[in-house]
């Protein structure tokens, strides 16, 4: 029986670092080495200041599949380097999220560059980690998924990796499949989670139009054991490096396999997420008397969720874009995101055509009270716990009146009556707006948000 004695992890990112740390801790007899092309990242891991980086198989930004297909140039480069320096028997494991049949491409590179006494087996072992709880997710996983060839050599490699995980994971939680099933399972898992968020966000729009409360609806449907309560939290939309990237990769895969109806189905998950962001921005503009030009708006939270400094695909970026398009003066506070990162995100070409506009319209604050002082509205964009404990009476006293508070994450539900007694005009996701009508949300094709007095009149059927 082959036993793994040495592990080399290529990539010291959010997945590579914690994964190998847990393996080294749980398997003291295994020698674990982590390498990365970024020397400063390795130095940070070896210091008292650990880096916060996220592993990523990026989306292509050029050529065929631009904006949707996975960019595998780094995976290919790793594969070529592995076959160049390796000898003997090696198990090569995909850990990053990759498209279906990526292992087949890696195997072709290995087979085309084979040399005497070299035997490389390829496995798929996708990660199922959530940012902020990576170590806990590794030590107490819902499941471990390992995919490999349905050959004797492939099964031998699968068993060797199973032996590593069995040091701390019960056998009942280790699933073995073929390679393709493993690769697709990771994409499908993220697509299903994103789908649930878009589904409850679609219901939140309906709740605002009817007087229902999306929190009550989510509780009612979540108690159905067939549905469950997880990922039924309405918000300004999902973000992060995985959900949008993986759903778009799934869309591209379906189109490439001539499955247009399936591609269209999953594309709607992304479209609904974008609609939710635009809709929330429209609601802010509508409540502020249909104009935010020159008005100070405080945005609390910039990371895509609490307990991380990751801003990739954060909904706050897009809400900021829509408000900047209308000339709003944004004052942004986040307890973990650096000023340089915020300005960099808002200066991207697809967010702001002129980076000088960002310096004119955006101020990054180091204190939430400073961000809110003199503002027309406070907008909670990230569910940081500290936002529950702010002195909102102090904030109200320093704001222009009427003072608006937009709770985009439903973190202040328990405080809404008190906030209204203080004097705030409170608006939140998934509850009927205080005005007599629902603001019209323009389509994604509009370059700017124009709030019309009424939705467009439908033509009468003849």
Map the helices and strands:
Layout: E1 6-10, H1 16-26, E2 31-35, H2 39-45, H3 73-85, E3 88-94, H4 102-112, E4 118-124, H5 134-139, E5 144-148, H6 152-165, E6 174-178, H7 179-210, H8 214-222, H9 243-256, H10 260-287, E7 296-300, H11 315-325, E8 329-333, H12 339-346, H13 355-361, E9 362-364, H14 368-372, E10 377-380, H15 392-397, E11 404-407, H16 416-422, E12 425-428
Question: Which short descriptors sum up this protein?
Answer:
462 residues; alpha/beta; 6-stranded parallel β-sheet; 12 strands; elongated
Describe the model.
With about 450 residues, the chain is α/β, with parallel strands linked by helices. It has 16 helices and twelve strands. Helix 9 runs antiparallel to helix 10 (about 260-285). Strand 10, helix 15 (about 390-395) and strand 11 form a beta-alpha-beta unit. The strands form four sheets. A six-stranded parallel beta sheet has the order 9-8-7-10-11-12, with helices on both faces. Helix content is about 40%, strand content about 15%. It has helices at about 15-25, 40-45, 75-85, 100-110, 135-140, 150-165, 180-210, 215-220, 245-255, 260-285, 315-325, 340-345, 355-360, 370, 390-395, 415-420; strands at about 5-10, 30-35, 90-95, 120-125, 145-150, 175-180, 295-300, 330-335, 360-365, 375-380, 405, 425-430. Pathway: Nucleotide-sugar biosynthesis; UDP-alpha-D-glucuronate biosynthesis; UDP-alpha-D-glucuronate from UDP-alpha-D-glucose: step 1/1. Homohexamer. Involved in the biosynthesis of glycosaminoglycans; hyaluronan, chondroitin sulfate, and heparan sulfate. Keywords: Allosteric enzyme, Carbohydrate metabolism, NAD, Oxidoreductase. Belongs to the UDP-glucose/GDP-mannose dehydrogenase family.
